[in-house]
């Protein structure tokens, strides 16, 4: 019987302490995310966090392919298309065929999207501040650094 070092360590960890859901990283991340989403929905009820991410990224990129936009905000192609379609229906983004590749759609903010996203960015700062209001500035910095490592 061949037992690896990792299996031995996992076995020791399981016997050392009982599994407590409340102590698990996934559980704590989910609770923190739920708190953040509650704050977001109260402060910015007209759009979802994924729609906001697209608007915020389009403010930085001005005009970008739909596929590249999805990659930059961490969404798959199908999700990106759905988000862009919903934002287009709200009049906040527009899509045009690429001049260099007719298979590609270029996404950009409309004038209404520029105005809306400017206001939304300001609100997003407040949402982030409220989400971490129980932490010191140093703790916020450490939390963000640790989350980047995951």
Any overview of this molecule?
This protein has 150 residues and is mainly α. 66% of the residues lie in helices and 9% in strands. It has 7 helices and 3 strands, in the order H-H-H-E-H-H-E-E-H-H. It has helices at 5-16, 25-43, 49-61, 66-73, 77-89, 111-131, 137-149, and strands at residues 63-65, 93-97, 105-109. Strands 1-3-2 form a 3-stranded antiparallel sheet. Helix 3 (49-61) crosses helix 4 and helix 4 (66-73) packs across helix 5 (77-89). The chain is extended, with a radius of gyration of 21 Å. 14% of the residues are buried. The model has no long low-confidence stretch (mean pLDDT 91).
Labels describing this entry:
150 residues, mainly alpha, 3-stranded antiparallel β-sheet, 66% helix
Briefly, what is this?
66% of the residues lie in helices and 9% in strands. The chain is mostly helical and 150 residues long. The protein has a three-stranded antiparallel beta sheet.
**Percentage of residues in helical conformation:** 55-70%
Unreliable spans = none
Secondary structure tally, helices: 7
Average pLDDT, to the nearest integer?
A: 91
Report the portion of residues in β strands: 5-15%
Order of helices and strands: HHHEHHEEHH
**Shape by Cα distribution:** extended
Radius of gyration: 21 Å
Strand order of the largest sheet: 1-3-2
Report the sheet with the most strands, covering strand number, pairing sense and barrel closure.
3 strands, antiparallel
The span between the termini is: 34 Å
| Class of secondary structure makeup | mainly alpha
How many β-strand runs? 3
